[in-house]
Amino acid sequence: MKKIAILTRDCGGVNAAIRAVVRTAVASGLQVEGVMRGYEGLIRGDFVPLDRRSVSNIIGLGGTILKTARSEDFMGEEGQKTALANIRARSIEGLVVIGGNGSLAGARVLASEYGFPVVGIPATIDNDVPGVENAIGADTAVNVALDAVDKIRDTATSLERIFVVEVMGRKCGWLAMQVALAGGCEEVLLPEKDVPLEALCAEIKEGSARGKASWIIVVAEGRSTASAVASAVTAATGLETRIAVLGHIQRGGRPTAFDRILAARLGHAAVEALVDGRTGGCVHLQNGRVEFLPFGAAGDKKKPDIESDYHLLKVLS
Ligand code: F6P
């Protein structure tokens, strides 16, 4: 193998992973090209050469230096064949794909339907990749959201108010659960757990009668919206509410030390796997060791163990 390419989505730690892939590849005598704008760039033939210096000083930067985009065209056979022709025309013999379930599904197609050597690195704030404990970017997103929740707590306590904070995560409640636990929040509403709003409102009324004045309720975007929950709480309790929708700030920001180190380990391991011919899967960390996980079936879903964390949250709140 003489030349590999890297394709990415964006979240905290992706640049650190690009750096690790490039520097490991160069140290192994490989040339590296970056694919601009994800699968769109693969179809358009938009590549940039990367060397040791092109990844200097990016370890602490959020986002991705390669930019990214969603690609409808790559879903179809024509787009996939054009992408592959572009890869082959540039004598690229292996691909590292850094991203979440959508990006890894594309990687699985290239590997299983076209036999192209691909290694994935899970990177998503949703932390919803099946079989993977920690995706790059998830820890950074928890810390970004936690910083916001801590600030909301200051004003919620001072004004004795109820806040509903909406957290990202697509259809998965992992991010919301972590933020609620770390922020000492009173309630979390998740797609994986049915906490009826009537029960929540009854709890707030009861607490209010005892003199409890401020609440922070975290809602995962996959369950409901902050405004729907806040309206329901006000209607049922007569108490004033405020909302905060954290949105895309959770996908940005300087990566935490945890994500940078994870990125270093997985970027390094991805290149080693390509060189050793272990392809068609992801590298990830399990019990502190790098493991290789073959790409799963399309539509596989991660089932986070919400119950024990939810129980903990309720005991401590
Ligand atoms: O998958 C990452 C994520 O940030 C989700 O948490 C969110 O639902 C989605 O992407 C937002 O997508 P977009 O950036 O296209 O609005």
Determine the mean pLDDT.
96
Distance between the termini: 55 Å
**Which series of helices and strands comes N to C?**
EHEHEHEHEHEHEHEHEHEEH
Tally of helical runs: 10
Structural class: alpha/beta
Q: List all distinct small molecules, including ions and cofactors, that are bound in this structure.
A: 6-O-phosphono-beta-D-fructofuranose
Instruction: Tell me what portion of residues adopts beta-strand conformation.
Output: 15-25%
| Strand line-up in the sheet with most strands | 3-2-1-4-5-10-11
Low-confidence stretches: none
Shape: elongated
The radius of gyration over CA amounts to: 22 Å
Topology:
Layout: E1 3-8, H1 14-27, E2 31-35, H2 38-44, E3 47-50, H3 77-89, E4 94-99, H4 101-114, E5 118-122, H5 138-159, E6 162-167, H6 174-182, E7 187-189, H7 197-210, E8 215-220, H8 226-237, E9 241-245, H9 257-276, E10 281-286, E11 289-294, H10 306-316
Parallel strand pairs: 1-2, 1-4, 4-5, 5-10, 6-8, 6-9, 7-8
Antiparallel strand pairs: 2-3, 10-11
This protein binds 6-O-phosphono-beta-D-fructofuranose.
Q: How would you describe what is shown here?
A:
By secondary structure, the protein is α/β, with parallel strands linked by helices. Helices cover 43% and strands 18% of the residues. The protein contains ten helices and eleven strands. It has helices spanning 14-27, 38-44, 77-89, 101-114, 138-159, 174-182, 197-210, 226-237, 257-276, 306-316, and strands at 3-8, 31-35, 47-50, 94-99, 118-122, 162-167, 187-189, 215-220, 241-245, 281-286, 289-294. A seven-stranded mixed β-sheet has the order 3-2-1-4-5-10-11, with helices on both faces. A four-stranded parallel β-sheet has the order 7-8-6-9, sandwiched between helices. Strand 10 and strand 11 (289-294) form a beta hairpin. The longest helix is centred in the middle third of the chain and has 22 residues, at 138-159. The chain is elongated, with a radius of gyration of 22 Å. The structure holds 6-O-phosphono-beta-D-fructofuranose.
